[in-house]
Amino acid sequence: MPKERSFVTTLATVGFRIALPVVLLFSPLYLLVSRGFVRHEYALSHVPPSIRFSQEERLDLSDVMIGYLRGWNTQEEMAELVTSEGVAALDDRELSHMVDVKQVMDWFFGSQRIALGVAVLCGVWLLYAAGLASLGQQMQAGVFAAGIVILVVVVFSLLDFDSFFTVFHGLFFEQGTWTFWETDTLIQLYPLPFWVDAVWKLGVAILVELGIVYGLGAWCQRWAPLPPSP
Questions:
Q1: What predicted TM-score, i.e. pTM, was given to this entire model?
Q2: Is the dihedral of CA 89, 174, 31, 199 positive or negative?
Protein backbone atom coordinates (compact mmCIF):
# COMPACT_ATOMS: atom_id res chain seq x y z
CA MET A 1 0.00 0.00 0.00
CA PRO A 2 1.43 3.45 -0.94
CA LYS A 3 2.60 5.54 2.02
CA GLU A 4 0.00 8.26 1.43
CA ARG A 5 -2.84 5.74 1.26
CA SER A 6 -1.58 3.99 4.39
CA PHE A 7 -1.51 7.33 6.26
CA VAL A 8 -5.08 8.16 5.24
CA THR A 9 -6.18 4.68 6.28
CA THR A 10 -4.60 5.18 9.70
CA LEU A 11 -6.40 8.51 10.09
CA ALA A 12 -9.65 6.91 8.99
CA THR A 13 -9.20 4.12 11.53
CA VAL A 14 -8.62 6.58 14.38
CA GLY A 15 -11.49 8.79 13.25
CA PHE A 16 -13.87 5.85 12.99
CA ARG A 17 -12.94 4.52 16.43
CA ILE A 18 -13.58 7.93 17.99
CA ALA A 19 -16.70 8.85 16.03
CA LEU A 20 -18.60 5.56 16.27
CA PRO A 21 -18.82 5.52 20.11
CA VAL A 22 -20.10 9.11 20.04
CA VAL A 23 -22.81 8.12 17.55
CA LEU A 24 -23.80 5.09 19.60
CA LEU A 25 -23.89 6.97 22.90
CA PHE A 26 -25.72 10.09 21.73
CA SER A 27 -28.19 8.78 19.12
CA PRO A 28 -30.74 7.41 21.65
CA LEU A 29 -31.11 10.93 23.06
CA TYR A 30 -33.46 11.62 20.16
CA LEU A 31 -35.81 9.00 21.65
CA LEU A 32 -35.36 10.30 25.19
CA VAL A 33 -35.98 13.96 24.36
CA SER A 34 -39.30 13.34 22.70
CA ARG A 35 -42.96 13.85 23.41
CA GLY A 36 -43.55 10.13 22.96
CA PHE A 37 -41.15 9.24 25.77
CA VAL A 38 -42.84 11.69 28.13
CA ARG A 39 -46.22 10.13 27.37
CA HIS A 40 -44.77 6.68 27.96
CA GLU A 41 -43.43 7.74 31.37
CA TYR A 42 -46.61 9.50 32.45
CA ALA A 43 -48.55 6.29 31.81
CA LEU A 44 -46.41 4.33 34.30
CA SER A 45 -47.74 3.81 37.81
CA HIS A 46 -44.43 4.56 39.57
CA VAL A 47 -44.12 8.01 37.99
CA PRO A 48 -46.15 10.18 40.39
CA PRO A 49 -48.89 12.45 39.06
CA SER A 50 -48.60 16.20 39.43
CA ILE A 51 -50.17 17.83 42.45
CA ARG A 52 -50.63 21.06 40.47
CA PHE A 53 -51.58 20.02 36.96
CA SER A 54 -54.04 17.66 35.38
CA GLN A 55 -52.60 15.01 33.10
CA GLU A 56 -53.79 16.93 30.05
CA GLU A 57 -52.27 20.22 31.20
CA ARG A 58 -49.09 18.48 32.22
CA LEU A 59 -48.70 17.05 28.72
CA ASP A 60 -49.49 20.38 27.10
CA LEU A 61 -46.77 22.13 29.11
CA SER A 62 -44.25 19.37 28.55
CA ASP A 63 -44.93 19.28 24.80
CA VAL A 64 -43.85 22.91 24.45
CA MET A 65 -40.72 22.36 26.55
CA ILE A 66 -39.71 19.27 24.59
CA GLY A 67 -40.46 21.23 21.45
CA TYR A 68 -38.16 23.98 22.64
CA LEU A 69 -35.31 21.54 23.29
CA ARG A 70 -35.77 20.04 19.82
CA GLY A 71 -36.14 23.38 18.05
CA TRP A 72 -39.82 23.04 17.25
CA ASN A 73 -40.90 25.80 19.65
CA THR A 74 -39.25 29.12 20.41
CA GLN A 75 -38.02 30.40 23.76
CA GLU A 76 -40.70 33.06 23.62
CA GLU A 77 -43.43 30.43 23.22
CA MET A 78 -42.09 28.58 26.24
CA ALA A 79 -41.85 31.78 28.31
CA GLU A 80 -45.46 32.64 27.45
CA LEU A 81 -46.83 29.38 28.84
CA VAL A 82 -49.60 30.03 31.35
CA THR A 83 -51.16 27.52 33.73
CA SER A 84 -54.88 26.95 34.19
CA GLU A 85 -54.59 29.21 37.25
CA GLY A 86 -53.57 32.09 34.99
CA VAL A 87 -49.97 32.38 36.17
CA ALA A 88 -46.73 31.92 34.25
CA ALA A 89 -45.85 28.24 34.08
CA LEU A 90 -42.11 28.87 34.45
CA ASP A 91 -40.42 31.42 36.68
CA ASP A 92 -37.18 33.15 35.72
CA ARG A 93 -34.96 30.47 37.26
CA GLU A 94 -36.80 27.69 35.45
CA LEU A 95 -36.63 29.56 32.15
CA SER A 96 -32.91 30.15 32.63
CA HIS A 97 -32.35 26.47 33.35
CA MET A 98 -34.27 25.41 30.25
CA VAL A 99 -32.05 27.71 28.17
CA ASP A 100 -29.01 26.03 29.73
CA VAL A 101 -30.48 22.59 29.06
CA LYS A 102 -31.06 23.45 25.41
CA GLN A 103 -27.44 24.54 25.05
CA VAL A 104 -26.30 21.20 26.44
CA MET A 105 -28.73 19.24 24.25
CA ASP A 106 -27.69 21.22 21.18
CA TRP A 107 -24.10 20.23 21.94
CA PHE A 108 -25.07 16.56 22.25
CA PHE A 109 -27.14 16.58 19.07
CA GLY A 110 -24.52 18.58 17.16
CA SER A 111 -21.76 16.22 18.28
CA GLN A 112 -23.84 13.24 17.20
CA ARG A 113 -24.41 14.67 13.74
CA ILE A 114 -20.75 15.55 13.24
CA ALA A 115 -19.64 12.16 14.55
CA LEU A 116 -22.11 10.42 12.23
CA GLY A 117 -20.67 12.25 9.24
CA VAL A 118 -17.10 11.42 10.30
CA ALA A 119 -18.00 7.76 10.91
CA VAL A 120 -19.62 7.44 7.48
CA LEU A 121 -16.70 9.08 5.67
CA CYS A 122 -14.09 7.06 7.55
CA GLY A 123 -16.11 3.87 7.15
CA VAL A 124 -16.37 4.34 3.40
CA TRP A 125 -12.61 4.86 3.14
CA LEU A 126 -11.87 1.81 5.29
CA LEU A 127 -14.20 -0.28 3.15
CA TYR A 128 -12.44 0.92 0.01
CA ALA A 129 -8.86 0.77 1.27
CA ALA A 130 -8.86 -2.10 3.76
CA GLY A 131 -11.91 -4.20 2.96
CA LEU A 132 -15.13 -5.29 4.62
CA ALA A 133 -13.47 -7.44 7.27
CA SER A 134 -11.26 -4.60 8.45
CA LEU A 135 -14.30 -2.34 8.70
CA GLY A 136 -15.99 -5.02 10.79
CA GLN A 137 -13.03 -5.08 13.16
CA GLN A 138 -13.22 -1.32 13.65
CA MET A 139 -16.96 -1.52 14.29
CA GLN A 140 -16.35 -4.00 17.09
CA ALA A 141 -13.57 -1.84 18.53
CA GLY A 142 -15.95 1.14 18.61
CA VAL A 143 -18.56 -0.99 20.37
CA PHE A 144 -16.09 -1.91 23.11
CA ALA A 145 -15.21 1.76 23.71
CA ALA A 146 -18.86 2.82 23.93
CA GLY A 147 -19.69 -0.22 26.06
CA ILE A 148 -17.17 0.72 28.72
CA VAL A 149 -18.58 4.24 28.99
CA ILE A 150 -22.23 3.23 29.24
CA LEU A 151 -21.43 0.41 31.68
CA VAL A 152 -19.77 2.88 34.06
CA VAL A 153 -22.67 5.32 33.75
CA VAL A 154 -25.42 2.75 34.31
CA VAL A 155 -23.66 1.03 37.22
CA PHE A 156 -22.98 4.40 38.89
CA SER A 157 -26.61 5.46 38.49
CA LEU A 158 -27.93 2.16 39.85
CA LEU A 159 -25.65 2.21 42.89
CA ASP A 160 -26.35 5.81 43.92
CA PHE A 161 -28.68 7.74 41.66
CA ASP A 162 -28.66 10.88 43.81
CA SER A 163 -24.86 11.14 43.57
CA PHE A 164 -24.98 10.36 39.85
CA PHE A 165 -27.63 13.03 39.29
CA THR A 166 -25.56 15.58 41.20
CA VAL A 167 -22.32 14.74 39.38
CA PHE A 168 -24.02 14.85 35.98
CA HIS A 169 -25.55 18.27 36.60
CA GLY A 170 -22.30 19.53 38.08
CA LEU A 171 -20.55 18.74 34.81
CA PHE A 172 -22.91 20.82 32.67
CA PHE A 173 -24.61 23.43 34.87
CA GLU A 174 -23.54 26.04 37.37
CA GLN A 175 -24.11 25.16 40.99
CA GLY A 176 -27.45 26.36 42.30
CA THR A 177 -29.05 26.79 38.87
CA TRP A 178 -30.59 23.33 38.57
CA THR A 179 -32.26 22.74 41.96
CA PHE A 180 -35.95 23.54 42.41
CA TRP A 181 -38.78 23.18 44.91
CA GLU A 182 -41.06 20.16 44.65
CA THR A 183 -43.98 22.40 43.67
CA ASP A 184 -42.05 24.12 40.86
CA THR A 185 -43.24 23.34 37.37
CA LEU A 186 -40.10 21.51 36.22
CA ILE A 187 -40.32 19.09 39.15
CA GLN A 188 -44.05 18.65 38.67
CA LEU A 189 -43.45 17.72 35.04
CA TYR A 190 -40.29 15.68 35.49
CA PRO A 191 -40.05 14.14 38.99
CA LEU A 192 -37.07 12.06 40.08
CA PRO A 193 -38.58 8.66 39.06
CA PHE A 194 -38.87 10.06 35.53
CA TRP A 195 -35.10 10.63 35.45
CA VAL A 196 -34.28 7.27 37.00
CA ASP A 197 -36.24 5.64 34.20
CA ALA A 198 -34.64 7.88 31.60
CA VAL A 199 -31.11 6.86 32.57
CA TRP A 200 -31.56 3.11 32.66
CA LYS A 201 -33.74 3.06 29.54
CA LEU A 202 -31.15 5.14 27.74
CA GLY A 203 -28.59 2.56 28.83
CA VAL A 204 -30.74 -0.28 27.50
CA ALA A 205 -31.21 1.49 24.16
CA ILE A 206 -27.47 1.98 23.85
CA LEU A 207 -26.78 -1.66 24.74
CA VAL A 208 -29.21 -2.76 22.01
CA GLU A 209 -27.34 -0.53 19.56
CA LEU A 210 -24.03 -2.00 20.68
CA GLY A 211 -25.29 -5.54 20.18
CA ILE A 212 -26.55 -4.77 16.67
CA VAL A 213 -23.34 -3.04 15.59
CA TYR A 214 -21.14 -5.73 17.16
CA GLY A 215 -23.12 -8.43 15.36
CA LEU A 216 -22.86 -6.52 12.10
CA GLY A 217 -19.10 -6.26 12.59
CA ALA A 218 -18.87 -10.01 13.17
CA TRP A 219 -20.94 -10.64 10.05
CA CYS A 220 -18.60 -8.43 8.00
CA GLN A 221 -15.60 -10.44 9.14
CA ARG A 222 -17.29 -13.78 8.54
CA TRP A 223 -18.53 -12.79 5.09
CA ALA A 224 -15.17 -11.36 4.00
CA PRO A 225 -12.43 -12.71 6.32
CA LEU A 226 -9.09 -10.94 6.53
CA PRO A 227 -6.33 -12.48 4.40
CA PRO A 228 -3.87 -14.66 6.35
CA SER A 229 -0.71 -12.97 7.57
CA PRO A 230 2.33 -13.72 5.40
A1: 0.88
A2: negative
